[in-house]
């Protein structure tokens, strides 16, 4: 079942199509991650599905309706999007930012309500930002700032949340912090989350559904364990690698080949006095072996 779908979507820049006749159904209540090389169209697709870009062909369907025919506030009550690198006005506090998430519910006749107050408080609590609500957004660390923006999207109380590279510019600790938060929201509230990520290993760890994009086309889509393999990585990223099970989670883990370091590692494994030996496989180097079924397991 899907709350958000792209049907025969076509989008062009300067007469050249980025997408043409693209079809995608986002699984409801799951975490979907778009992966692909730079410039392949991941962010363009995400923005098209949020109605930030108008397609030349096809439709985006949100909760059974063509998104093009919906009012801005109607869309904002069903779908929230956090773009890449959002910027807040100088001096804006976390509380003021999160309150912006209630805009879709405001009107001349309906001003701030108890429901709005409760939604803002719940969003601050869910993201661990309640104690920082009086801080200005520009005074926060990278991870705190991203959590503040996520709190704003949560305050919208939408069933669908789109995020364009939410871990960009964050160190590894803050990346995990943000992705853990999104994972917990998905598990606890069953919100449909769609995001663009560059880190393949984190994408596989957190996604229920992977969409691999290559040159404006969907190369593969499905559970990470079903679709992410060395052939896909070479097709999408032109990267030779080994795919092994993550030792903690069992999800696909990409170990890229590096020709220079690979040769050095092979040379280092030669016994003293031996000038030649059989080449070392990538599997040996990363400490895995082939199972009887052909898959890779930890040695």
TrEMBL record:
Matches recorded under InterPro entries: AAA+_ATPase, ABC_transporter-like_ATP-bd, ABC_transporter-like_CS, P-loop_NTPase, Siderophore_ABC-ATPase
Q: Which Pfam families match?
A: ABC_tran
Instruction: Say which domain of life the source belongs to.
Output: Bacteria
Cellular component (GO) terms are: plasma membrane
PANTHER family xref list = IRON(3+)-HYDROXAMATE IMPORT ATP-BINDING PROTEIN FHUC
SMART domains in the record, alphabetically? AAA
Could you tell me which residue ranges the ABC transporter domain spans? 4-240
Protein name in UniProt:
Siderophore transport system ATP-binding protein YusV
Question: Where is the protein found, in the record's own terms?
Answer: Cell membrane
Q: Which UniProt keywords apply?
A: ATP-binding, Cell membrane, Ion transport, Iron, Iron transport, Membrane, Nucleotide-binding, Transport
Q: Does the keyword Nucleotide-binding apply?
A: yes
Q: How does it sit in the membrane?
A: Peripheral membrane protein
Q: Tell me the GO molecular function terms.
A: ATP binding; ATP hydrolysis activity
Gene giving rise to this polypeptide = yusV
- One of this protein's GO BP terms? iron ion transport
């Amino acid at each position: 079942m899907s709350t958000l779908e792209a049907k025969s979507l076509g989008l062009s820049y300067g007469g050249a199509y980025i997408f043409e006749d693209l079809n995608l159904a986002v699984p409801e209540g799951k975490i979907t991650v778009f992966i692909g090389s730079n410039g392949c169209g991941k962010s363009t697709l995400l923005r098209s599905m949020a109605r930030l870009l108008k397609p030349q062909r096809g439709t985006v369907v949100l909760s059974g309706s063509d998104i093009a025919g919906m009012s801005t506030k109607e869309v904002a009550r069903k779908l929230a999007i956090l773009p890449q690198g959002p910027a807040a006005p100088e001096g804006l506090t976390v509380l003021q930012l999160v309150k912006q998430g209630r805009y879709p519910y405001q009107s001349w006749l309906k001003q701030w309500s108890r429901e709005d107050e409760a939604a803002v408080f719940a969003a601050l609590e869910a993201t661990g930002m309640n104690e920082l609500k009086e801080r200005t957004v520009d005074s926060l660390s990278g991870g705190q700032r991203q959590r503040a923006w996520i709190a704003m999207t949560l305050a919208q109380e939408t069933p669908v949340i789109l995020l364009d590279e939410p871990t960009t510019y964050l160190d590894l600790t803050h990346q995990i912090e943000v992705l853990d938060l999104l994972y917990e929201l998905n598990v606890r509230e069953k919100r449909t989350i769609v995001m663009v990520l560059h880190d393949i290993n984190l994408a596989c760890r957190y996604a229920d559904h992977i969409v691999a994009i290559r040159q404006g086309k969907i190369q593969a889509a499905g559970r990470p364990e079903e679709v992410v393999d060395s052939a896909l990585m070479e097709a999408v990223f032109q990267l030779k690698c080994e795919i092994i099970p993550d030792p903690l989670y069992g999800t696909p883990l990409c170990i890229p080949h590096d020709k220079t370091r690979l040769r050095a590692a092979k040379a280092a494994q030669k016994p003293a006095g031996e000038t030649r030996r059989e080449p070392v496989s990538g599997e040996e180097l990363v400490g895995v072996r082939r199972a009887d079924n052909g898959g890779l397991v930890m040695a």
